[in-house]
């Protein structure tokens, strides 16, 4: 029982670390999605079902590339989350909502989860393991 109590105590004392790991994973996943869309723009057109609005598709790719990288390293985290929220809102309400929860490919629940996580990082910031935190600590030291 003591081993379990010690493990639980260590996990509870490192919640900020878990918060940072989730941010790093989310940023990396969005960066990879941006790389995929950059290397194959036809995939984005196929996902959206339209080839009329290239500017929006470019915004999606660039926001995933830049925003994903910034989220992964924790630089300008709130801004990085903010520029991706419209993209994920569009994915949820325009693309996936009409497909519903029973679609075989891209899923509504995953897009909603990413949208919620972006909202959390926009509201609460990057956490302890982040470039933002290093910059903030240096400003306080000066």
Short description:
With 142 residues, this protein is an all-alpha fold. Helix content is 82%, strand content 0%.
Q: What does the model show?
A:
This protein has helices spanning 2-13, 15-39, 41-48, 54-73, 77-99, 108-124, 131-141. With 142 residues, the protein is an all-alpha fold. It has one domain. It is globular and about 55 Å long.
Write the layout of secondary structure elements.
Elements: H1 2-13, H2 15-39, H3 41-48, H4 54-73, H5 77-99, H6 108-124, H7 131-141
The helix-and-strand class reads mainly alpha
> How would you state the average pLDDT, rounded?
87
**What is the count of helical runs?**
7
State Rg.
18 Å
Helix content: over 70%
Distance between the first and last residues' Cα: 47 Å
What keyword list fits this structure?
single chain, 142 residues, mainly alpha, 82% helix, globular
